[in-house]
Model the fold of this input.
Amino acid sequence: MKILGVSSFYHDSAAALFIDGKLISAIEEERFSRVKHDNQFPFKAIQYCLDSVGLTIDDIDAVAYYEKPLRKFERLLETFVETYPFALKPFLQAIPDWLGQKINVEDIIRKNVGFTKRIYFVSHHLSHASAAYYSSLFKTAAILTIDGVGEYQTTGLWKGDGGTLSPLARIDFPHSIGLLYSTFTAYLGFKVNEDEYKVMGLSAYGSPEYVEDIYHLIRVKPDGSFRLNMEYFSFREGFRMFNDKFISLLGQPRIPGGKIEQRHKDIAASIQKVVEELLFAMLHHLFSLTHTTNLCMSGGVALNALANGKIYTRTPFKHVHILGAAGDSGAALGAALYGMRHGQKKEVNAPITSLYTGSSYSNESAESVLKTYPGLRYRIYDAEQDLIQEVAALLSKGKIVGWFWGKTEFGPRALGARSILSKPSPRIMKDNMNKIKRREEFRPFAGSILQEHVHEYFYTPEKKYYSPFMNVCLVVREKKRNELAAIVHADNTCRIQTVNIDNGRYYRLIKEYYRLTGVPCILNTSFNVMGEPIVEHPRQAIEDFVHSRMDILVLNNLVVTKR
Amino acid sequence: MIALFKRLNAWFISFVLIGVYGIGVGLARLIYMFSAPKETKKDSYWVYETKRRIPDDVFSAY
Done:
């Protein structure tokens, strides 16, 4: 069975192709459109998925869409009724938009994509739950789906057993942890649905002095269920997330781009603490309903790596699976997985251990672009081992390397296919990297570490801890903090990616770096500059390289330097 | 000429939508005010799924 999963019209539109239960291709639209978190229908991503295996749309057996647009439209209308007469402006903007295309997803798939066979509409949180559970290695698992909002649902408790998903409990809009966190993202002067991880990063510099105030905004029960106090929020009525009452409680919001004061850091620390307390209470309740120590999580809130790292010590769960693309792009994959199960009426087992599912470019295409840059020189390496030795040696000398290799990653994290790399110490490497990325200095960097050494450097829940998708922060062991000085955050944690043989050339590079330096870890950040999606085409990588202080650019088998 | 037509068209649509919002949504709001259930004190805000199985409506956009 060939099935195409699609997500669109909220953020992070994407397409994913499965053939006979195996993930073949998956990519976000933003990579092609160059609009970060692009929410337009993913025509280009769909075309890529088909082209990658030489198929046409007629070869596809089914398309699975990641939500039910009519039900979502109904929720929108209900919200307009509940907030009347304060939401005229959003009404004037949203209705033409919805009637124009968002409601007509089936028409778009039929007429614009040209698909004539079966279309599945898998509800939003079911898509998330499917992505989390069916991509895991677990037979039995508790599942938490948690995000801003789908159709109505914002939070879901599920159980997966023997390939069957069962919904247990839910919380509906407007009560949403995702929207609560996004409200604070906006309040702290960052972009909603984009900069939530900045709040998470900022939280390490503050103390949680506003926790009591934040509990005015939310009522929480011991079982982790909650209600937002809507007197403080205005995301239903308008384009602003919070209202004047919110400001009178917490003070004036930070102006975007303005100075970050200690108060802002404390507020970030406070909301992070509240969200963690809520999350752990929910997980305790989920455990009491499911009695399994395996946990799968999905939805935008599941990208909160700082909270994820504490699950092992603060809840009964011992094994946690969070797919790298835990947000809405991953829901395209989940919709396809659910459609596949439904279409075949048999158990779907599609564990995903690698997310290198996107586009790739040949050495020749990279070389043809390079020839148009007279200021650059390059060398082609025929033997991979030579290239790896050369790059590892340069990294060990403190050079910053743009690393463009093989198929690009699916999801928001660079996992060693489109990355900028450097050694993980001394601390100045962090400042140098921040200059290249043109981003705020408070933001931390992640590390990629050989899986067999992870327990030596971090407090891990088990010896050969496995976390391949960079969505968990762990505390760095005291005696190793100097060795990782550029990636240890202010709270002594670091977001990590464990790397093993599944990571191919990237694994072999770190292995060589370890042989040279005795350190099995390197700094890894996404290959892009602030405000742009991760690079897609070699030309974009070359442009970033030329206009930044990167020392070396590796394009597959080509090592590029500046003259 | 085309720009003027587009602008008039946008105004017309806005005018219609303001009417729909003012009268249609306003009436719905009135009905909602009298029919919405009062929120009672609860021990939990979870809405528990009674059937614990996923409804078989995967081909519907609703």
User: Anything to note?
Assistant: The longest strand of chain B covers residues 47-48. The CA atoms of residues 3 and 37 of chain B lie 49 Å apart. The mean pLDDT of chain B is 84. Chain B is about 55% helix and 5% strand.
